[in-house]
Here is the input.
Amino acid sequence: MNIIRAAFVKSLPVMAGYIILGIGFGILANNAGYGFLWVLAMSLFIFAGSMQYVGIGLLTGGASVLTVILTTVMVNARHLFYSISMLRHYRNAGRYKPYLIFSLTDETYSLLCDGQVPEGTDPDRFRFWVSLFNHSYWVLGSVIGSLVSGILPFSTAGIEFSMTALFIASFTEQWITAKDHIPAVTGLLGTLLCLIVFGPERFLIPAMLLITLLLTLFRSRISTGEKVDA
Here is the structure.
């Protein structure tokens, strides 16, 4: 029980955000004509956060399968980059590995990327419980939103911004707790540059590639804490 309690405490920063964001998704989906079972299935088996928000628009807009695939790749491309740093943590996770890979979201990554686990606990089991708690918060919020939306009228204007708000909150927390701000500054400047050069519709993939390249170049200095000259 100690490991479960520790995982729950670790997941608390994500709980409030995921339940609120899940409620927003449930409301949006219900208003688009997708009922409780659709919402439950999407949150259980897709669990893609921002892509679920985008997916509602694609489904209601009659998007083609190819459009859905390409959009999904674009929206979730960031996972390809930050998940690489989790390989060393998940390599020997055994039976927990498939679920750990499936449930790795931005927020779960922010909790687990430092590799720190409570002393005397099984690291893989601890990460499994943190991931499971986060997943359950999202499912719970989505179900609440779907059920409540069917009873009470809601305006969905602005709900899609809630995922952006959570990203900002996660970034702020990491900025406050991190000793080295080089990765954060690299991400901000690299994204801004690609946004200017490629435009809002095409900047995501180039930004990820540029950030990955820069962080790879600065890797040794970041890990040793050396100051990088401007």
User: Anything to note?
Assistant: The first helix runs from residue 2 to 31. The radius of gyration is 19 Å. The chain is about 70% helix and 0% strand.
